[in-house]
Automatic annotation (TrEMBL):
Taxonomic source organism: Perkinsus chesapeaki
Origin organism lineage: Eukaryota, Sar, Alveolata, Perkinsozoa, Perkinsea
Pfam families associated with the record: IBN_N, TPR_XPO7
Keyword Phosphoprotein set for record: no
Name the UniProt record assigns to this protein: Exportin 7
Domain Importin N-terminal: 28-94
GO cellular component assignments: cytoplasm; nuclear pore
Location(s) in or outside the cell: Cytoplasm; Nucleus
């Protein structure tokens, strides 16, 4: 590259980063992109760095060099690596001043390239691990060099952090080596500079340079403290990793001067207006408060650190230092929360300033709660701080009446203040207050995650003063329901809160444990709630909510469909949340009561024996609810829950989220199992809540009229169709429970047939249409929706065929569909293959149909277990084969024809192919069919199905295969099964070397997938193919290789001379696979060495 070429390059970079128009940017992109493609571009890019001062040119050149080095590191020679590193160090040192003046933005990109070279070469020898001494000359020169040297450390410590992705294992080893060799020295450098600042020994006249220096050294300290010392690669989106695992030799952190240093720097940063520096100070303090307990030799060292933290935060809070900034406020809340989570209550109490600190934190918390503009994430840390104190306070054996009473008052005041603040925000949201949008607030009622966090905190806080808190909520509820204009937002919040209270305070309440302590001699806490009193409170709460729910359900008009959640939808979701929390308490206790009333059982309780109470809390809850609602029968409470489910299915189905939650709740009721411990039995026994439902009149009426026109979602078109499957999966569980409890098999069959009558009528209509003329009558709008609904219904019922008597359940459904096994062509199940002939191009029909058949042929938990003399297994496989053939032939014909391209290739092609491959894989893997029968009697069901399935696989481009991996995962499962037992047929269907090489290439791509199941299946498929190729070349004619039938002389000749020609496409692809596998093992990027070792052996032997 000469001067003219450099000028042209700079012009192109300017057009690329600052384009005058889109066309100029596109032209610059086309010219510059080839420079990223190989190692040959390195000299040109280095020439740009050495001779250009243009900022855009430097950014592009350094970015390109970083990408090239990362992607082609193995192609870079030892001398080139050392030359690049030395070039960058000298370049940065010599051009430090010029870069800061002319191209400050490019500096970070140049430093990043240097750090990437150091990272990639780190494990290649001690000569590549001298970065600390290399940077020392920067720290000994001018202030700007000092800042640049710190910038190198900052980016290096960040880049050395191990991350998930390619090369993960190698980079993890790099990070651990860097931790031991260089990180301690780098951190010592940061601490030394911070100490000089703390002692006032640094005098920098230029305030901007001082700011940059302070920011860089604080950022470096943060990177060092937050380094992944154990190489666990924690999830950065969560706060679960709360312990900093610093090495033992970082003894400088045991000095309590270090926290004071950061607090002082925080003060000075706030005074100077250095917001970024202040935030880094607080973040470093958060990490210091999280040091692992084993790092300290004794409790004195830990106490000294805690005292420094408490004094510093108390000063910060009392003087409101920097708290006007939302980010500083957030980090302060994090710091307070982390001090608590990283220490035990016992350790906190030992700090002399603990009570003073708690008082300051209490006032800070109250102010934050009252100020609605404080973001919820910031408040969450403060609320969690108090919530995590609840259990230690209750279980504290060394109780100080005055201190603990004050703590309980603090927590009660915080609890009710926070509840009041939720209602205040709900009122603002209902009014549509624009100030909430201006502040970037999200309505927690519409954010499930945020709402769940807030309700969990309320439930935890309320446990300490449950009775008072519940009374306060009931008063708010009464006031809200008595208003002339009821605010449904506030009501929804109150119902959610009441649900959280009930769900978070069951019979294992902390208050009861406190009472047990008091009975055993401990001092009595201020607020004690007995189990019976707790049950009275819960009964009162439940009665109020159920009464309000009945009033709401009186409005049976269908709510309009809307993209935005309505007030009614919000309120209905809160009812369902309350019902779910109530179910956890009531259903379990009610089941115990039924068991206790049985002749063989004694009175059951959960804690009553130890509590010395003879009154059943479940009965107290029921009696209180009955009193509030005016009910006579305690079983009517279960009827309330069921009635609400039916009401939602009838009148609330247009609210899709309500319909979804309702069906999920119904399923939990039907499928729930409670472990009941009896006084007179040593071992626990199970109570199935579904049996409780079957005794309910509303459920029995629903079972008898499950397809009623009053259930609107069943007849509202395909939009709600997917919910039919879950609905019938729930009813199917109840149905088979009822069938199992039948006195004879005949009565069970009669019960099943009576239940299936609506589906039978639809099936009969479809059967008549399929057998009228050429069957084209099936393709009519009058039969389309019933067909879709039938497939979804039957899939749900089939899903319910899983239990300890699963064989009988599945057999009943199988006999219902295969009703004439001696004349298979006259069985009702043939309707589905006939329908596919006419609906193959309609994904709204094919998807539910194929999913049903895939579920029907799936031998889940060995539920398909026909007698040895039964032909049912063969009949089932042949029907699956017919459906695959009917669908695959049409799809492949469309691929070969000139029909219009797919408008939505996912729904119109790949989703169906994924379903049909899953269907066929389930049939092949079902272990209920002897496949040798088909060839013995010249039945081509197996061979044609395999052939078409393989052709479907070959019709999928590899790029699309990995792009739509979620729906095409059955692709790899099918190839594994096909190559395991039918490898010869795979080679026959692959008519050319290129087609077989294409399948192997797809397996090669699957090896690099992040889905471990796909990787394992690809390993197995390659092993199967290579074993087949090896055996056929060594065992010769007549040997039974690869499963299936024996290979003939013609097979051997065609495979060895046609497909496996040395240097051919298949041979080249297998070599690529072997190379990839060896690279994966060397880089440590494969999870199962055993799985990958088997195909490697076969590939080597070939």
């Amino acid at each position: 590259m000469d001067a003219a070429s450099l000028a042209q390059f700079e012009t192109l970079c300017n057009q690329f980063y600052n384009p005058p128009n889109e066309q100029a940017q596109r032209q610059a992109h086309e010219v510059l992109t080839p420079l990223l493609n190989g190692i040959d571009s390195v000299p040109q890019l280095q020439y740009v760095l050495a001779n250009s001062s243009n900022q855009q040119a430097l950014v592009f050149a350094s970015t390109a060099l970083t990408k090239i080095a990362t992607a082609n590191w193995t192609a870079v020679t030892e001398s080139q690596r050392e030359d690049m590193k030395n070039f960058m160090l000298n370049y940065l040192f010599q051009n430090c001043e010029a870069l800061q003046n002319s191209a400050p933005y490019a500096v970070s990109f140049l430093v990043r390239f240097l750090c990437r070279i150091v990272k990639l070469s780190w494990l290649e020898g001690p000569q590549h691990q001298t970065i600390v001494s290399d940077v020392q000359k920067f720290l000994s020169a001018s202030t700007r060099h000092w800042i640049l040297g710190l910038d190198i450390y900052v980016q290096l410590t960040a880049d050395m952090q191990p991350t998930v992705g390619p090369g993960m294992s190698r980079f993890r080893r790099t990070a651990l080596s860097f931790r031991d060799i260089a990180l301690p020295q780098i951190f010592t450098t940061a601490v030394d500079i911070l100490t000089q600042m703390y002692e006032g020994k640094l005098n920098i006249s230029d305030k901007m340079e001082e700011f940059k220096l302070v920011k860089k050294v604080l950022q470096l300290a943060y990177n060092c403290l937050s380094f992944d010392f154990m190489g666990t690669i924690p999830d950065e989106t969560s706060e679960d990793q709360t312990t900093v695992m610093v090495p033992h030799n970082w003894t400088v952190l045991k000095d309590n001067v270090i926290p004071k240093l950061f607090f002082q720097l925080y003060d000075s940063s706030c005074k100077n207006g250095w917001k970024d520096c202040a935030i880094y100070c607080l973040q470093c303090l958060v990490l210091l408060s999280s040091l692992r307990r084993s790092f300290f030799q004794d409790e004195k060292e830990k106490t000294a650190l805690l005292e420094s933290m408490m004094e510093g935060t108390a000063h910060l809070i009392s003087n409101k230092v920097g708290l006007s900034d939302p980010q500083c406020l957030h980090e302060t809340c994090r710091l307070i929360g982390r001090i608590n989570t990283s220490s035990q209550f016992r350790e906190l109490k030992q700090v002399p300033s603990f009570e003073m600190w708690l008082e300051q934190v209490y006032g800070f918390t109250i102010d934050a709660i009252k100020n609605w503009q404080v973001l919820p994430n910031s408040k969450h840390y403060l609320l969690q701080f108090w919530a995590q104190l609840v259990n230690p306070i209750i279980n504290d054996k060394d109780r100080t009446p005055g201190f603990h009473s004050k703590l309980e008052d603090y927590i009660y005041t915080i609890t009710v203040s926070y509840i009041d603040s939720r209602l205040f925000l709900a009122d603002m949201a209902a009014r549509g207050d624009d100030s909430m949008d201006d502040e970037g607030f999200e309505d927690a009622l519409q954010d499930e995650v945020l709402r769940g966090e807030q309700l969990e905190v309320i439930a935890q806080l309320a446990r300490l003063n449950y009775q008072k808190t519940a009374q306060h909520v009931l008063e708010l509820f009464a006031g809200c329901t008595s208003e002339a204009n009821i605010n449904e937002h506030k009501l929804a919040w109150l119902v959610y809160i009441m649900g959280a209270l009930v769900g978070g305070n069951t019979g294992n309440s902390s208050s009861m444990r406190a009472q047990q302590q008091q009975q055993s001699g401990g001092s009595q806490p201020l607020h004690v709630v007995t189990k019976v009193n707790l049950s009275v409170i819960n009964g009162e709460i439940a009665g109020r909510v159920f009464a309000l729910m009945s009033q709401t359900d009186a409005n049976t008009s269908l709510p309009p469909e809307s993209k935005e959640p309505s007030n009614l939808e919000t309120l209905e979701l809160s009812y369902l949340y309350f019902m779910e929390q109530f179910r956890k308490v009531y259903i379990g206790e009610h089941a115990r009561q039924l068991s206790a009333n049985a002749p063989s059982s004694s009175v059951l309780s959960r804690g009553d024996v130890s509590m010395g109470s003879s009154e059943n809390p479940s009965r107290v809850v029921q009696e209180r609810v009955c009193t509030v609602l005016g009910l006579k029968d305690e079983d009517a409470i279960l009827g309330i829950l069921i009635k609400k489910i039916v009401t939602n299915l009838q009148h609330r189905y247009t609210l899709e989220s309500v319909l979804k939650r309702t069906l999920a709740y119904f399923y939990e009721l039907a499928a729930g199992v409670n472990i009941v411990h009896s006084v007179d039995k040593m071992s626990p026994h199970l109570i199935i809540s579904g049996k409780l439902l079957l005794k309910n009149d509303t459920v029995r009426h629903l079972m008898a009229n499950h397809a009623s026109s009053t259930l609107g979602f069943l007849h509202a078109g395909p939009k709600y169709g997917r919910y039919r499957t879950q609905y019938y999966a729930t009813l199917g569980k109840l149905l088979f429970m009822e069938c199992r409890d039948g006195t004879t098999s005949t009565s069970a069959l009669e019960t099943f047939n009576a239940f299936m009558m609506p589906q039978y009528q639809v099936l009969e209509r479809l059967w008549q249409a399929a057998n009228t003329g050429d069957g084209s009558a099936l393709r009519s709008e009058q039969l389309r929706l019933p067909l879709i609904g039938l497939c979804r219904d039957l899939r749900g019922i089939c899903q319910a065929c899983v239990s300890h008597d699963m064989y009988k359940r599945y057999t009943i459904l199988f006999n219902w569909l295969v009703d004439n096994p001696k004349q298979p062509q006259n069985c009702k199940i043939t309707v589905f293959s006939a329908a596919l002939n006419f609906y193959w191009d309609d994904p709204e029909v094919t998807t539910p149909l194929l999913k049903f058949v895939a579920e029907f042929v799936y031998n889940k938990a060995q539920r398909i277990n026909f007698d040895q003399n039964s032909p049912n297994g063969i009949l089932l496989f042949r029907e699956a084969s017919k459906i695959l053939v009917a669908y695959s032939q049409r799809i492949l014909q469309r691929e070969q024809s000139h029909l219009p391209v797919y408008k939505d290739i996912y729904h119109e092609k790949y989703k169906g192919i994924g379903c049909v491959l899953e269907l066929f894989s389930n049939a092949l893997h079902g272990n209920y069919t002897n496949f040798g029968v088909f060839e013995l009697y010249n039945d081509n069901s197996l061979s044609m199905s395999l052939s078409l399935a393989l052709k479907l696989c070959m019709s999928i481009p590899i790029s699309d295969l990995m792009s739509y991996l979620k729906c095409l995962k059955p692709f790899f499962m099918f190839l594994e099964l096909a190559t395991r037992n039918h490898a010869k047929l795979v080679c026959e269907v692959a008519e050319s070397r290129e087609q077989l090489a294409g399948l192997i290439r797809a397996l090669e791509e699957g090896l690099t997938s992040f889905d471990s199941s796909v990787c394992m299946q690809c390993c197995a498929s390659i092993d199967n193919l290579c074993t087949f190729f090896y055996d056929i070349g060594h065992t010769g004619v007549g040997s039974s290789v690869g499963g299936g039938t024996a290979a003939t002389a013609e097979d051997v000749a065609r495979i060895t001379q046609g497909l496996l020609v040395p240097g051919g496409a298949v041979d080249a692809e297998l070599r690529r696979v072997l190379n990839l596998m060896l690279q994966l093992i060397m880089a440590g990027e494969f999870n199962s060495t055993w799985s990958i070792s088997r195909p490697i052996l076969a590939l080597i032997l070939m």
